[in-house]
DNA sequence: ACCTGAACACCGTTCAAGT
DNA sequence: ACCTGAACACCGTTCAAGT
């Protein structure tokens, strides 16, 4: 678009993020990105080492947009708000989940986020030991990411016809029962399946309450391992 | 290998699974797979619609290997054992996580697994409403998958030198503290970071205990939404 | 009707030739 | 020294030509 500004790593990454938002992460190629920037493909290699580095930079760009943590709040509030705020930011970029989860290297931005979250637990009175396990149990939900294989909100884009549904219901009665009861719940959006945000907060609070209970019980991995 | 047996969908999928185990999922291409089977690439298209269908079939093949659920066990035991058994099966195929999570379509095998798991909760006295939310909260951990962005067991393949570590520790004191305390724990494998299986079971039991508490409290989404 | 070689429209990245 | 066009070694998939 602004094809004549000089290339720089931030500008390349920003363009890549915008392009991924527009055409999806799978369609983002070095060549396509170069085209978008009005530049020859090889010019990108001055600013990113390779495609993997590009991906990493894109993730970092996104994480750089996250709101800073609350200070002086109870650990539970601080963690909860941080996670929900990260969720709001990442949800604007549907490809973020895949990109974040496929990256294994921890950039400074990633480490910074984790560091501040660990800090919240420690400040809240969690032992280092418990904090460690709690961080593992938190998993990628710490980033506000939903971790479901089966997204039933996306399931029946075309609602199945009667016969197909009957067949499905016969083979998988419990799944059918669940789908029907979810649709019949007046609080959920009929047809659209589930309320993602409600489900996320349900799981988040379940975890946070669990963490709290362990802390208050004085849980330690040494005791747990017997 | 057994290049002269006639091609069939199961044989194609089995070969793809073995190939993925061997060279990694990213290196599995239609062309590479065809080579492995001693066949021209286009011959595969008689048995799989396209590469996406191949991936789906590979996942299904894996899930077909899962042990059947326990019968006549307490819901918590039944769910726990099923998940841990799925974990054992999927861990033999490191690419399974990515493949499962990138698939959005629910094959009969996937639906069958979910159906039986829903059935375990219902049989255990969970309401349909609670079961629904519990399944969402369970997420991909239901498949025995670990859902962590930050795999600290894989982190320091080359242990960082003193100076690098000091620099890291200065920037991310809490992360450093966590890493050190984990390494100093005599029960954990020093240097190798964390015990994945322990962390998985920790999170699993945290969730199961949380589910149980909600059930006993008579939790309902109607109450929760106020 | 079945099968398949060649072709199409892409990839990421190397490298040597140009300025 | 910097930049880049062409080339290399791949992709998934279409399609027309062969049997």
Report on the structure:
Chain A has 226 residues and is mainly alpha-helical. Chain A has two domains: 1-48, Orthogonal Bundle (Arc Repressor Mutant, subunit A), CATH 1.10.10; 49-148 and 194-224, Orthogonal Bundle (Tetracycline Repressor, domain 2), CATH 1.10.357. Helices cover 59% and strands 0% of the residues of chain A. In chain A, helix 4 packs antiparallel against helix 6 (108-123) and helix 8 (162-171) crosses helix 9. The longest helix of chain A is centred in the last third of the chain and has 22 residues, at 196-217. The first copy, chain A, is flat. The structure holds a DNA duplex (19 and 19 nucleotides).
Quickly give the CATH architecture of the largest domain in chain A.
Orthogonal Bundle
CATH topology of the largest domain in chain A: Tetracycline Repressor, domain 2
CATH superfamily of the largest domain in chain A: Tetracycline Repressor, domain 2
Structural class of chain A: mainly alpha
Task: Summarize the SSE layout with pairings.
Two copies of one chain form a homodimer.
Chain A: H1 9-23, H2 30-36, H3 51-63, H4 75-91, H5 96-102, H6 108-123, H7 128-138, H8 162-171, H9 173-184, H10 196-217, H11 221-224
The structure holds a DNA duplex (19 and 19 nucleotides).
List keywords for this structure.
226 residues, mainly alpha, Arc Repressor Mutant, subunit A, Tetracycline Repressor, domain 2, 2 domains, 11 helices, 59% helix, flat, DNA-binding
């Amino acid at each position: 678009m602004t094809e004549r500004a000089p290339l720089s790593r931030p500008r390349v990454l920003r363009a890549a993020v915008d392009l991924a938002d527009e055409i999806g992460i799978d369609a983002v190629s070095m060549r396509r990105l170069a085209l978008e920037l009005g530049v020859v493909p090889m010019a990108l290699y001055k600013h990113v080492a390779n495609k993997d580095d590009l991906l990493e930079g894109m993730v970092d760009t996104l994480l750089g947009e996250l709101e800073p943590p609350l200070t002086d709040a109870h650990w539970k509030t601080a963690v909860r708000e941080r996670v929900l705020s990260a969720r709001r930011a990442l949800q604007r970029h549907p490809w973020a989940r895949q990109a974040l989860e496929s990256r294994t290297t921890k950039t400074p931005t990633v480490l910074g986020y984790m560091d501040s979250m660990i800090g919240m637990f420690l400040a809240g009175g969690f032992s280092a030991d418990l904090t460690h396990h709690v961080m593992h149990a938190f998993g990628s939900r710490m980033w506000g990411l939903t971790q479901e294989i089966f997204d039933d909100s996306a399931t029946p884009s075309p609602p199945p016809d009667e016969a197909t549904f009957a067949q499905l219901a016969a083979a998988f009665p419990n799944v059918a029962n669940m789908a029907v009861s979810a649709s019949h719940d007046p609080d959920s959006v009929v047809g659209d399946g589930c309320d993602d945000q409600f489900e996320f907060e349900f799981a988040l609070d379940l975890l946070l309450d669990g963490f709290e209970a362990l802390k208050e019980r004085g849980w330690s991995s040494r005791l747990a391992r017997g």
